[in-house]
């Protein structure tokens, strides 16, 4: 690695072959850096340790960024063949603490690290081939197959940043020096912070689809806000500045902490920032892989709850209200600083992209027009919960990248850190984390009159999820009964044993709850975390709100509570998980019932599911399928349809006959019936379908 | 014009600015040639004459190719403003003799030619601007806005070819010499024709969407055929060779003519080819703008019926069966000739693209591997009726370019002529005309064992039209009555006078027939000739066949007759026309009833229709609207929706309220009701909607 980290490639240009070479270099550089940072783990044994109990062991992340490429390429039908189906199920889900991301490692036997290394090599070769051979026109747009490759690269860049946090949390004895990872070596007294005036103005956030840099879904669209003048701290809060708060007993004084903050203190037992280490009455500082004397002029690393507590403490002390900057205020700070977006911005001007250090550095080292570290050094927590701009649309390859975080619980982090690269150092990027989550993040404060954003219920802005909420929790129409309830009734009637059931393709989870009336335990699995979130919210928060379309863009707001559903008593029986029905994790097994409602004609390869579903059922287990058999090429390539075509001899092939052929060896078909369902599009337009319900008893 | 006609531009390349310049040059060249060929008309008065009664006057075509650009750009929402709404309605429809193309010139007062010249100038400037400014990536694909510009250019190229036929049909005293239009000056004795052996083989017709030349919808997809060896005539049939047929009384002998041929003879009174002129017992030859002595070695210009009659005559004489070549046989002839597609093919090698002459030339002048005029000189009639290849899809900008000709009545013409340029000289282009239609076309004959293609019913391959046939003529579902019948009942109940009704947005025409039960005259108008064709076929052929989808690609074939509908007695009361509800021709007026079912939420600008609809109604006339108000951006830009959004003050705007506001000045709302309708997608999936029916009486 001569130059440690390359800048991201632009989407435009005139020479496709040159662009392929740029992408190839950027891809290998990303893969290289990712593997390099795992060299800090002392031995292969360390890969099976966790840096904290709520996260996966290291080996998961090591496999995850490679499987991500394959899973997304399969999903987008760019490639047909998996490289290692088992790896691609167990390494599949790696999101920030979400209830449905199964982090219980005892559920799997993790593979050998060398096997994962071998696997990574194969993925690297496959992606390299695709970079050479995929159709490519410039500019690369969101529907280009190359976009999925760029998505894989940027996803890996995120994990470079977050893995470095995890590594930094590991015990020092598990780590070793890596020559290239140069920790900044200079420090002196911290400068005294002061406030800078920023003029108000109109801010337009969001970027256009024609922008020439890759973006995640949450970056596109438009959002305007008018901001009054405000003041902002010249420097990030240094370890020295934060020390006053710690020494004044800030972590012990409840008045500085809100409910979420108090919960964090109770669970973590924190008395000081996570990377401070108390040794002999003095605080030392944990860098990536070593302990050093406290660098008082470096930024403090804290989570959002700690940053907010500091603001309350300082407000009380100074008699002025300090808060974290909002997303729109930060844009005015960015403009005040005269910053420009990459590639016009040169990385030498800030502590980012691994250009200077593998650590933070003094808060007065990189200034822009008199204000310091507007980008780089550490991320800066904002008070703005992430939300979708007007015109927000998910990308089909990753429809749950952002939407599960639009829950008012995920705060945006601004700027970037020493460990940021790729999309993260772009002007328009937007990342958000739970407020208790450790990151390479600190903060600066503002004095502003800005109000907090009004909280929105997340599903009101997600049309497809809202449509499913209406389908599963809304009103009946044309005299057709609630489909989820009716399916659960059929299932409960036929099932022999009622210990454990699986609702596969559970969508917003209604049938999962309904099955729990007669099963001791019900797991709901869906491919998309967008949908799962509804069931989780009902279980945890006791309600879900959504918008039911009436005419054009107009909608009626609706709210359903767990009490109304009569499911309070059974809610602890249900759990929701993210999973791919065509490549389910091995731990999903031992069911008395597997119900797949309106799933088989939406799978990219339904045979993969049907061929082995019997193995997940107990003896005397039942499989229940429902489907209107509406095959469509956008979900399933025509050669993988189970019916709805003529075979080579010209004979019509019907889905039910193919089901009998595939399932007949291992199941007996015991019941077949039609069941209507109605999905509302508007108050005057409905999809009215007739599913075929087939009930199969395992032989 | 230094070089008379430029080659078409390729869709690919690496430099977008250079491509814009290529397109610009090609566009102006096309516009120039088109205007140049009208210089042959002696004076502006001649523009108001017709070359034959079934066609429009010349001024129509002169305006038509320019309005085509604007109408398609509006339809595709690439531009918002019309240049001249009146011109863009009266010059809108210019297809080959179709019943719904209103060619009765007394219906309009045509504008001055100078006004049309001025209009053409404005269109030229507007398109030139767009060529500079439209988003452009290479290769240009079918969804690129530039595709619509290329479509306009290629459409004009077609009219260059067909207008030259019309001009050649005009009386000589209406024409003048144009210096650049050089008629070939050499001729000698015709060579004796002979037969060449062509090896059989497998032929794959159709081109891929990635092909680097513009194509019309009918060129894409794939069609394979296995062809036995056959023989083909070395030369096109010359005037000399055809003379034997004429002199032997071929035009008088019914045995050589089929039913369609006999009808042609009866109507036209033809005794010889159209461009032969009998003077003093001798045949002379009509070139574009002069009469010359019969060039015996030039190809004869005939229609397909005359060509077929000649084949029957020659078969009888020689005792061998001659026929016209099929499309697939022609491909083997093309390959035998060693031809290559443009731009690799050089235009100097054949009589096309105006490179040599503004006329035909001897049949033995341009040879390819021993066979002559495989491309160029005159088109060659084939025995193959045009049809859609597997994978056929209409282009949204011109959904009725081909489908109305997939009726087994339109025969393909092969090769190209001296007047062909642009797409017409490409290998993959496919044009078809009615068999009695004059073109710059002749023929060559084959001796082959090939069977005729099996005839298919056209609507069985058109999914959307089939879906509408099922909706209007198929079975009822969920107990919901036939919507077209119910709407017609409401209309008949409210209307006061029953002389003339308009069914606007008539689709496949069921309501048009139903209204005819109580109205003396009913006009059905739809934007797309694809749909209108169903009503026309029912009226003329007494039946229509379509395919009703069951599962996936599988469908049930259905056939409905005019007898079953009980409409035999009223069918003469209905007529169908192509038209744009937002820019209707002035002659559509004086109605007692205008009914627009499920139309307003599919218009690109519904206010344009509503603002002036009262002017087309008689006093005491009624307007009936039905709609589920399912606004969608693909049909109507959001700023033109009539409802389904919030206004600037945040108030919800509903469609019915906007209708009351717009129509309230001129109409009284006398009735409002809901009416359900069901559209079948598959046997298990339906769209189930609830239209609002509003009945408005003109004040």
UniProtKB/TrEMBL annotation, chains A, B:
The gene is ovoA. Transmembrane segments: none annotated. CDD domains: AdoMet_MTases. Pfam families: DinB_2, FGE-sulfatase, Methyltransf_23. InterPro entries: CTDL_fold, DinB-like, OvoA_Cterm, OvoA_Nterm, SAM-dependent_MTases_sf, Sulfatase_Mod_Factor_Kinase, SUMF_dom, SUMF_sf. Residues 28-162 form the DinB-like domain. One of its GO terms (molecular function) is formylglycine-generating oxidase activity. Pathway: Amino-acid biosynthesis; ergothioneine biosynthesis. The keyword Oxidoreductase applies. Keywords: Iron, Oxidoreductase. Residues 193-446 form the Sulfatase-modifying factor enzyme-like domain. This is 5-histidylcysteine sulfoxide synthase. PANTHER family: GENERIC METHYLTRANSFERASE (PTHR23150:SF26), SULFATASE MODIFYING FACTOR 1, 2 (PTHR23150). It comes from Sulfurimonas crateris.
């Amino acid at each position: 690695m001569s130059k440690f980290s390359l800048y991201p490639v632009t989407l435009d240009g005139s020479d496709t072959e040159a662009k392929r070479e740029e992408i190839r270099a950027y891809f290998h550089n990303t893969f290289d850096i990712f593997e390099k940072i795992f060299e800090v783990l002392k031995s292969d044994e360390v890969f099976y340790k966790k840096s904290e109990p709520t996260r996966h062991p290291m080996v998961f992340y090591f496999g995850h960024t490679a499987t991500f490429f394959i899973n997304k390429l399969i999903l987008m039908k760019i490639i047909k063949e998996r490289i290692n189906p088992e790896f691609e199920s167990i390494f599949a889900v790696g999101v920030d603490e979400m209830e449905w991301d199964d982090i219980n490692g005892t559920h799997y036997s993790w593979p050998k690290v060398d096997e994962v290394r071998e696997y990574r090599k194969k993925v690297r070769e496959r992606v390299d081939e695709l970079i050479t051979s995929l159709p490519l026109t410039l500019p690369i747009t969101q529907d280009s197959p190359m976009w999925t490759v760029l998505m894989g690269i940027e996803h890996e860049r995120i994990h470079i940043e977050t893995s470095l946090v995890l590594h930094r949390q590991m015990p020092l004895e598990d780590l070793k020096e890596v020559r290239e990872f140069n920790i900044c070596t200079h420090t002196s007294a911290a400068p005294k912070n002061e406030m800078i005036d920023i003029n108000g103005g109109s801010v337009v956030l969001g970027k256009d689809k024609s922008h020439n840099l890759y973006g995640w879904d949450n970056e596109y669209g438009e959002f305007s806000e008018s901001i009054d003048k405000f003041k902002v701290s010249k420097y990030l809060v240094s370890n020295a500045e934060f020390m006053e708060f710690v020494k004044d007993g800030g972590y012990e004084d409840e008045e500085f902490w809100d409910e979420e903050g108090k919960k964090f203190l109770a669970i973590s037992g924190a008395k000081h920032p996570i990377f401070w280490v108390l040794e002999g009455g003095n605080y030392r500082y944990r860098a990536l892989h070593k302990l050093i004397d406290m660098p008082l002029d470096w930024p403090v690393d804290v989570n959002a709850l700690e940053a907010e507590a500091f603001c309350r403490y300082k407000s009380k002390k100074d008699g002025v209200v300090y808060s974290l900057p909002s997303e729109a205020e930060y844009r005015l700070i960015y403009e005040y600083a005269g910053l420009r977006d990459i590639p016009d911005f040169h990385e030498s001007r800030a502590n980012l992209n691994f250009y200077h250090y593998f650590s933070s550095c003094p808060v007065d080292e990189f200034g822009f027009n008199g204000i310091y570290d507007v980008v780089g050094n550490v991320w800066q927590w904002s008070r703005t919960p992430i939300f979708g701009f007007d015109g927000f649309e998910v990308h089909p390859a990753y429809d749950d990248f952002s939407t599960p975080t639009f829950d008012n619980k995920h705060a945006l982090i601004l700027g970037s850190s020493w460990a940021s690269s790729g999309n993260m150092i772009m002007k328009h990027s937007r990342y958000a984390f739970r407020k208790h989550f450790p990151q390479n993040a600190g903060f600066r404060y503002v004095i502003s009159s800005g109000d907090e954003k009004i909280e929105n219920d997340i599903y009101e802005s997600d049309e497809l999820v809202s449509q499913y909420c209406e389908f599963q929790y809304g009103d009946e129409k044309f005299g057709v009964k609630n489909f989820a309830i009716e399916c659960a009734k059929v299932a409960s009637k036929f099932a022999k044993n009622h210990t454990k059931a699986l609702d596969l393709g559970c969508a917003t989870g209604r049938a999962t709850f309904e099955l729990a009336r007669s099963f001791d335990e019900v797991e709901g699995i869906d491919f998309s975390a967008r949908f799962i979130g509804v069931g989780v919210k009902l279980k945890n928060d006791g309600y879900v709100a959504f918008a039911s379309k009436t005419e054009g863009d107009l909608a009626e707001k609706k709210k359903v509570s767990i009490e109304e559903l009569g499911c309070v008593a059974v809610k602890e029986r249900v759990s929701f998980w993210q999973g791919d029905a065509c490549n389910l994790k091995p731990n999903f097994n031992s069911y008395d019932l597997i119900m797949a409602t309106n799933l088989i004609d939406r799978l990219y390869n339904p045979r993969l599911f049907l061929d082995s579903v019997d193995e997940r059922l107990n003896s005397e287990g039942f499989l229940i399928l429902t489907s209107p058999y509406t095959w469509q090429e956008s979900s399933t390539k025509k050669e993988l349809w189970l019916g709805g075509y003529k075979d080579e001899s010209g004979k019509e092939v019907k889905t039910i006959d193919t089901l009998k052929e595939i399932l007949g060896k291992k199941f007996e078909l015991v019941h077949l019936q039609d069941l209507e369902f109605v999905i509302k599009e508007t108050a005057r337009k409905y999809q009215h379908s007739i599913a075929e319900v087939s009930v199969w008893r395992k032989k």
